[in-house]
């Protein structure tokens, strides 16, 4: 048999047909797949030769006459002598064949030129035989491994990861989301393994000629996009859960981690049933599997019926995982299962509307988790966290719209970011709040029913929601969702609303402009307009629960902001607050008198009369305005000075995110001492109120209280508040004295990250070695990440350098998918920053090779670099480095642009605000 790799053939040289010059990034539209029959044989016995081979039969309908078939394929070898093409329906069934093939490597096209023209209305069957090595990188059809502790042997499994465009690495296909088709999949493998795919097993029978091998054929799938196809050959164990509708629900993991599946096996079915009620549509498959994969580049993947996860996102251990780990797991599982409707049942036509999948899954996941764990009060925290994230990212000129044109498949990867996920979620939450529950749910249900098993775009969703909103009276007939929501999804950024009150006439004039961090950009560029739902309340009313808009800021037909006046506001002795519970993603700046009134309330016993989310909002807004010069630091720091009496998580989260950024810029300066004293002043009262880091967590049910304690503990130990460091060292010594430290750990789970960090920072080389030994022996992925963070707290240059070398070691003591986490842990350490920056700049080429061909993953290494560069010299040095390293930073254009812009805004802050900031701090000490 003749097997050969498809070498790159320049288009036009291989063939004379005019079609061979086709060079558009999208597939031609002449053909459409109707069904795939895919058989894949996987060989896992020999670690030196991990391969797969397969046959695919694609039933293709011709929509127009054409002389070629253009498919996607990358890194597959074909047996071209065995290609067959036959007509299976239509007039005069004639034989057909393939005369020649050609490759377009730019777009991964495999073009088959046919003997006879394919005729519109006729149906054909194309059969291809292919093979490849199981990928060494986690995309396409790839290998993953774990060590069996009983035998001390490496065990290999195979798994797929196809989103957004890697199905073409596993089998030739029409690899675009708009080409939905049913799949019949059969997997061949050694009988000691298990085969899993999207659908339930139809039958298993012996392989026709390989001894001890079997073929497992799965039931025909519902129509789906290629990126949702999934299969795996593994020797995992599983837990079965029950679903009321009779569907089978299983949770899979390596055998030595199956005891960590209990929580996911209990939570998954609950959230699936919640979505059936929310959408009013039953889950359409008769089974669903979720599987924890040892090597996984994404967080998780929503493949229909076979959802894949990183171990940290699916496995939970009562003895080793924190409550924060549990919430992360719940969010990820809820997100992936929401996709079974949003994304899988109804899929975007093209990657432009990726946010329809990701924003929706992010938003409804927060509803799902809140429904199942109301005691966590996680929905408020989730929505605030999303907003805090986007207020930073989307204030960059180099940000992008939620719905962005995609003109090369390589650009799709850049869209998997906070704008698609967190901003997408935030604008959907805004819409849910201004529409109300009835219109929102009714519009979603009609959209999902109308486009089930099909593809849709955002305008289709707007249409369904507008109809529902008009029907229920949730929206005036002269308003439509498309006009409102396009202003949020089709343009970059978000507005700052300036509220200028006239206290005599009791009115306020409102204006809007885009908020940008970069103060070098002229305000002329900020004249975009958003349709803004205006909710507000007054000091007398204090009605923060009413998030419905009392008025709208509207845009003219030419896109200019129309002037807005709000009537009947109170006198000079009462504040007004806009954007109740931060129901929409915008910032609000007030006149000096309104800020003065707010500061008076915050710094009085009445501070809790302002809703907790709005207290977080006031802190976030005023610190941004001080950063960009719209407010004085005297005002901003007087706002946050009240935190000494604050005992809720959300305002602290808001303040500490800003203080973290400011602290990193001030840290290498002579005035850091004043900053430290200010932090101690804020943190000491709450740290002592909460009883420090003593083990008083067990009776607490509300997760936000536990998260507040752990957050405060981390800051207290970092800034050596009260007894935090001595207490942490005592816990660590107690752990070190245990005879079996891997089984018994006396450190309270929720403060382990704080304790490990303090112990390594203030401890000895032996402490570091002890913790490193625990890392090597740990069987719990989330605990390993906690230990990685702790090890990076060392102040010993040689230990930090050793950590850096270890991260990018091909022997992978640290799994590749944890490498960015480990790098960030070292780089955020004050001693580690310069080492990490130097390491990155000197080794950028080998780091590029380490991640290749998933080199975009490198962009995850950039945040600690851009957060801590704040001098003109460092900025210029990094700019020069970027200019000289184009080859090693390929495919990271957006990330590099954003990195340079954030560095520049740090430089601007230091040059403009450093002295004002330290002067304002000293006034409060």
Automatic annotation (TrEMBL):
Domain Peptidase M1 membrane alanine aminopeptidase: from-to ranges:
263-488
Required co-factor(s) are:
Zn(2+)
One Pfam family from the record: ERAP1_C
Enzyme class name: hydrolase
Task: Quote the InterPro entries the UniProt record gives.
Answer: Aminopeptidase_N-like_N, Aminopeptidase_N-like_N_sf, ERAP1-like_C_dom, M1_APN-typ, Peptidase_M1, Peptidase_M1_aminopeptidases, Peptidase_M1_dom, Peptidase_M4/M1_CTD_sf
PANTHER family with a match to the protein in the record: AMINOPEPTIDASE-RELATED (PTHR11533:SF253), PROTEASE M1 ZINC METALLOPROTEASE (PTHR11533)
What's this protein's name?
Answer: Aminopeptidase
């Amino acid at each position: 048999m003749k097997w050969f790799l498809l070498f790159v053939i320049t288009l036009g040289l291989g063939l004379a047909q005019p079609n061979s010059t086709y060079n558009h990034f999208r597939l031609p539209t002449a053909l459409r797949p109707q069904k795939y029959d895919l058989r894949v044989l996987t060989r896992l016995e020999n670690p030196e030769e991990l391969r797969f081979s397969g046959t695919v039969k694609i039933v293709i309908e011709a929509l127009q006459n054409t002389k070629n078939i253009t498919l996607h394929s990358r890194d597959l070898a074909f047996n071209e002598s065995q290609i067959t093409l036959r007509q299976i329906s239509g007039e005069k069934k004639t034989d057909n064949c393939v005369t020649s093939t050609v490759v377009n490597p730019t777009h991964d096209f495999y073009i088959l030129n046919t003997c006879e023209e394919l005729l519109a209305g006729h149906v054909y069957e194309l059969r291809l035989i292919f093979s490849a090595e199981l990928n060494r990188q986690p995309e396409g059809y790839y290998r993953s491994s774990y060590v069996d502790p009983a035998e001390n042997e490496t065990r290999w499994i195979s798994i797929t990861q196809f989103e957004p465009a890697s199905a073409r690495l596993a089998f030739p296909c029409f690899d675009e989301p708009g080409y939905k088709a049913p799949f019949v999949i059969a997997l061949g493998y050694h009988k000691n393994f298990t085969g899993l795919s999207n659908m339930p097993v139809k039958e298993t029978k012996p392989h026709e000629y390989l001894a001890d091998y079997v073929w497992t054929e799965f039931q025909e799938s519902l129509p789906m996009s290629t990126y949702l196809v999934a299969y795996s050959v593994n020797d995992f164990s599983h837990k079965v859960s029950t679903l009321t509708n009779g569907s089978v629900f299983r949770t899979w993991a390596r055998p030595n981690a199956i005891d960590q599946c209990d929580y996911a096996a209990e939570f998954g079915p609950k959230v699936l049933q919640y979505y059936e009620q929310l959408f009013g549509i039953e889950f359409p498959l008769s089974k669903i599997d979720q599987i924890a994969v040892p090597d996984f580049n994404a967080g998780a993947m929503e493949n229909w019926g076979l959802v894949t996860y990183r171990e940290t996102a699916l496995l939970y251990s009562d003895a080793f995982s924190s409550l924060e780990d549990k919430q992360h797991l719940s969010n990820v599982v809820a997100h992936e299962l929401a996709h079974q409707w949003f994304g899988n049942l109804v899929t975007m036509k093209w990657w432009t509307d990726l946010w329809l999948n990701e924003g929706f899954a992010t938003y409804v996941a927060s509803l799902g988790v809140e429904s199942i764990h109301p005691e966590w009060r996680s929905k408020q925290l989730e929505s605030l966290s999303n907003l805090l994230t986007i207020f930073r990212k989307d204030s960059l000129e180099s940000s992008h719209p939620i719905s962005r044109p995609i003109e090369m498949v390589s650009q799709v990867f850049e869209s998997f970011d906070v704008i698609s996920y967190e901003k997408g979620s935030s604008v959907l939450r805004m819409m849910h709040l201004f529409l109300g529950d009835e219109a929102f749910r009714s519009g979603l249900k009609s959209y999902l029913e109308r486009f089930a098993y099909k593809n849709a775009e955002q305008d289709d969703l707007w249409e369904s929601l507008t109809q529902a909103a008009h029907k229920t009276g949730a929206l005036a007939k002269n308003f439509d969702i498309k006009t409102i929501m396009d202003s949020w999804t089709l343009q970059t950024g978000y507005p700052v609303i300036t509220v200028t009150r006239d206290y005599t006439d009791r009115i306020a004039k409102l204006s809007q402009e885009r908020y940008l961090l970069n103060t070098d950009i002229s305000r002329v560029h900020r004249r975009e307009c958003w349709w803004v739902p205006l909710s507000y309340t007054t000091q007398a009313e204090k009605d923060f629960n009413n998030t419905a808009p009392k008025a709208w800021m509207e845009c003219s037909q030419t896109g200019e902001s129309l002037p807005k006046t709000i009537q009947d506001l109170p006198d000079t002795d009462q504040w007004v607050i806009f954007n109740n519970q931060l129901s929409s993603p915008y910032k609000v700046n007030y006149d000096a008198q309104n800020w003065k009134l707010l500061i008076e309330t915050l710094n009085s016993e009445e501070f809790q009369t302002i809703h907790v989310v709005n207290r977080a909002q006031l802190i976030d807004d005023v610190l941004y305005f001080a950063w960009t010069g719209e407010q004085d630091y005297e005002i901003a720091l007087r706002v946050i000075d009240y935190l000494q009496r604050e005992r809720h998580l959300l305002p602290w989260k808001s303040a500490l995110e800003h203080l973290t950024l400011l602290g990193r810029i001030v840290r290498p300066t002579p005035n850091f001492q004043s900053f430290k004293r200010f932090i101690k002043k804020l943190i000491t009262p709450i740290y002592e109120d909460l009883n420090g880091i003593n083990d008083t967590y067990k009776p607490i049910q509300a997760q936000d209280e536990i998260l507040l304690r752990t957050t405060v503990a981390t800051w207290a130990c970092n800034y050596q508040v009260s007894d935090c460091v001595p207490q942490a060292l005592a816990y660590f010594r107690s752990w070190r004295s245990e005879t079996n430290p891997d089984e018994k750990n006396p450190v309270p789970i929720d403060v382990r990250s704080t304790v490990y960090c303090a112990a390594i920072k203030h401890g000895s080389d032996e402490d570091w070695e002890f913790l490193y030994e625990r890392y090597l022996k740990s069987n719990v992925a989330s605990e390993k990440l906690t230990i990685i963070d702790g090890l990076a707290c060392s102040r010993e240059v040689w230990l930090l350098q050793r950590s850096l070398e270890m991260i990018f070691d091909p022997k992978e003591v640290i799994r590749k998918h944890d490498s960015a986490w480990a790098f960030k842990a070292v780089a955020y350490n004050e001693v580690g920053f310069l080492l990490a920056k130097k390491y990155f700049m000197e080794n950028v080429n080998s780091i590029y090779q380490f991640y290749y061909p998933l080199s975009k993953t490198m962009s995850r290494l950039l945040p600690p670099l851009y957060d801590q560069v704040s001098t003109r010299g460092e900025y210029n040095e990094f700019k020069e480095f970027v200019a000289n390293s184009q080859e090693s930073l390929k495919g990271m254009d957006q990330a590099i642009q954003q990195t340079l812009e954030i560095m520049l805004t740090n430089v601007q802050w230091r040059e403009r605000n450093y002295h004002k900031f330290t002067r304002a701090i000293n006034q409060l000490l």
